Amino acid sequence: MPAELMQGAPLPQRHLGPPPVDKGTRLTILGLQRNECTEKLVYERLANSAVEPSNAQVLARIAREEESHYQFWKRFTGEETRPRRLEVWLYVAASRLLGLTFVLKLMEWQERRSSRHYEKLVDLVPEAKRVLEDEERHEQELINLVDDERLRYLGSVVLGLNDALVELTGVLAGLTFAFQNARLVAGAGFITGIAAALSMAASEYLSIKSEGGGQGPLKASMYTGTAYVLTVIFLVAPYLFLSNLYVCIVVVLANALIVISLFSFYVAVAKDLSFKRRFMEMTLLGLGVSTVTFLLGALVRTWLALEV
Question: Is 244 helix (H, G, I), strand (E, B) or coil?
């Protein structure tokens, strides 16, 4: 790792003291000061839990720079601020569940928001430009920081999740009109979903194995199958607890939108993609297939005169 990356030059310190600021600016600086001490603690916790030594070193260095920023702003307020402990805990917990890359990207997005405040303060506090440059450098460093397993296997998760959403919402919509019985729909949907999950996992295993590359075929198939099964359980659940079939299908579609929203947000943050575009693509596919299969179920029920 380059020496300049490992050494954060301290911010310049003036012996004449900071220039006076008005009340509104002081409140803004207090908010920035609290952000810095919160982020410093987050980076320290992430550095302590990082597996790769190089990742831990960069995170620890950024934590020290955040402390330097905190001390810089403290000169203007003369006050100590406390970190937002809940925010720290949420970031650390999210890194364990969703991966370090996602959390770093999310923090990067928040730092970009803080940069707007810095830009407004540059005219009043010229030294704030140095802090802004530090924040912008953090962004580029964090992008290249980690090789996150969750991100490497994101394609496998997308495969399982997207197929489950598109196929199972359609299947459940069709079965709802065809069977007219919540328990039968739940049973048929669950069996169909698990069979499809096993099929998708096996296909992903064979696909990755034949292609080679940096992914493990078994691990890729597990990511695909797990994403599929979890989605199946979430979508089928309404038919186990509700008796009104049409309420069930509405809840299924709502659950599908929740999954699409959460996953679209994850992908948008982790991959720097458009949330709106990703959300609209998955929603239109899922709802389109559901509508077609619901109408198909109605036609089959009428055509075959099904009474269940």
Answer: coil
Q: Give the chain's domain count.
A: 2
Same domain assignment for residues 73 and 31: yes
Tokens found for residue 272: 């720097």
Residue 238: predicted pLDDT: 92
Domain assignment of residue 110, given as a range: 19-148
For the chain, the residue count is: 308
- Rounded Cα distance between 168 and 153, Å, is 22
DSSP H helices, 99-127, are: 100-121
Of 148, 180, 206, the residue at which a domain comes to its end is 148
Asked if residue 61 and residue 128 are part of one domain, the reply reads yes
Instruction: Report H helices in 12-127.
Output: 23-49, 53-77, 85-98, 100-121
Q: Which of 120, 148, 176 is at the close of a domain?
A: 148
Burial of 172 (0-12, 13-18, 19+ CB in 10 A): buried
User: Could you please report the per-residue DSSP string of 166-197?
Assistant: HHHHHHHHHHHHHH--HHHHHHHHHHHHHHHH
Domain assignment of residue 5, yes or no: no
Residue 18 has phi, psi (to 5 degrees) of -75, 155
Question: pLDDT (tens digit, 9 = 90+) per residue, 123-169?
Answer: 767 777 777 777 767 666 666 665 556 666 776 777 777 778 777 88
Q: Does the global pTM surpass 0.90?
A: no
Neighbours of 24 (CB within 10 A): 8
Q: What is the mean pLDDT of the chain?
A: 77
DSSP 9: P
In a domain, 193, yes or no: yes
Of 207, 249, 202, the closest CA to residue 228 belongs to 202
- Nearest in space to 138 (alpha carbons), one of 74, 42, 65, 45: 65
Tell me the C-alpha distance between 183 and 244, whole Å.
11
Same domain, 56 and 185: no
d(CA 249, CA 235): 9
